[in-house]
Every structure is written in structure tokens, then in C-alpha cells.
Amino acid sequence: MKTDELILDSLSKLGIDISIDDGDMHSNRIAVIADELARFAEESADTIYKKRLHNSKLVEPVYFSDYIDKPDRGLDIDFLTELHTLEFMKERSHLVIWGNPGTGKSWLADSLATTACKAGKRVRKVDFQPFCRELASYKLANDAEALERKLKYYSRFDLLVIDEFLNYDLDDAYLLQELFKRIEDLRLCTLIVCCQTEPSNWPKLFKVKSFGESVRGRILKGGKILHTQGCDMRLL
Questions:
Q1: Taking the model in full, what pTM does it have?
Q2: Buried b (16+ CB within 10 A) or exposed e, 115-133
């Protein structure tokens, strides 16, 4: 069996049927197969992207190219461009984006999450307050197994984005510490944390300072920090 026939037979077994004119020259047949495979790959990638985007719980996709037109952010465009290569995810280097309200923290996190979805990564975005309430509900119900499953569930995403981090009075900081411990131990997940408070001040927001220091240490160990500046973009 000729090479092109072997390729067509193998593709057919995978459910990919490509129509080829028997009268075509061998080189033409290979070119047609290559074009059809490229089209199929593009369609498959788009399907995966849409699925990842839907499962991420992002309200809508956000694209970094739109950010360049926003003035006075005080950010290094080269650094942002590097982040959008997702190399920090390969290194599992968590990212903290902090700054005043309306300075683009969530926007930048969403653009990185969109890029990760486009790359076929498993992404999830959560808001801190309902996220903490969800975890606490399992503990209040004394359902240790369900709590453990939920902690591992969030720890297994390629990228977990936590928005409005620490904008909530924690009743049980132990749960937060346990989540970040799972993330650290499993080494599957990269974090993006959006916060209005500079990381050096995080321990002051915890009733027990040592919990805050532990959480900060687990996130910032080998991590990156991005400080957004400028006026509230929502008022422009």
C-alpha cells in the first residue's frame, strides 16, 4: 500500500474521512491530505478553545491586544507580552496582580486566562467571597470527604484565577491554607491572584497572622508580582 493510502486508511480509522481523486498524482494527493489535516486541526483547536472558555467561567474572552491602547497603567509591555507566552505556567510560577480598584487587575487576569484557554489549558476563575463560602459549606456540614474532593478539584486546574482576593472577612483561614497546600503538593496548578492589598500587608488581613504569612509564602514562592497603577478605567 502506498504512503498516501496508508495515511488515508489510518485517518479513516480515526473517523477522519478525506475525499481524494484517484486520478491525482501522488504529490497532489499528499498536498490535499496536508491541507485537509490542517483544516481539521484548526477546527479541533477552535472547538477545544470554546469548551475551555465555557468551563473557565469567564464572563467573556479578553484579548491582550486591546490593552496596549490603554494609557497610564504603569506596566512593562515586554513583561506582559512574556506573561502571555504562558511560560510562567510551565514553571508553575504563581502571579499576583495587585492595585487600586479599576486599574485593570481582573482585566489582565482574564486576558491571561483567555490565552490559556486558547492554548488548550484547563482554566477556572472564581470570585474570592463565594469561593470561600463554598469551601466553608462543606466543613459546616461536617462532610470531610466532599471538602477534600473539592480542594483537589480546584488544585487540578492548569490555571486557577482568584479575583477579589482577601476582600472578605475569613471565618476559617485554615481552609485557604489547605487549598494552597494541595496546590503546592500536587504541582499541577498555577495561580493568578487579583488583590487590592500589597502582598507584604496580607498577614494583617488575617485574624491569625501566621495563617496570612503561610498563605503569602505559598503563593509568592518563586512567583511574580504585577502592580497596576493609574486612574479607575471604569470612569474613563
A1: 0.83
A2: bbbbbebbbbbbbbeebbe
217 residue type, one letter: G
Residue 217 contacts residue 186 (beta carbons within 8 Å): no
11-15, 48-52, 174-178: which range is least confident on average?
Answer: 11-15
For residue 176, count other CB atoms closer than 10 A to its CB.
23
Confidence of residue 151 (pLDDT cuts 50, 70, 90): very high
- Amino acid residing at 13: K
Give the pLDDT confidence of 98-147 residue by residue, as tens digits: 999 988 899 999 999 999 999 999 999 999 999 999 999 998 899 999 99
Q: 15-44 burial string, b = 16+ CB within 10 Å, else e?
A: eeebeeeeeeeeeebeebbeebeeeeeeee
Question: From edge to edge, which strands make up the β-sheet containing 95-99?
Answer: 123-127, 159-163, 190-195, 95-99, 224-228
Left, alpha or beta for 16 (phi > 0: left; psi -120 to 50: alpha)? beta
User: Nearest CA to 236 among 103, 80, 97, 76?
Assistant: 103
Distance from CA of residue 23 to its chain's centroid? 49
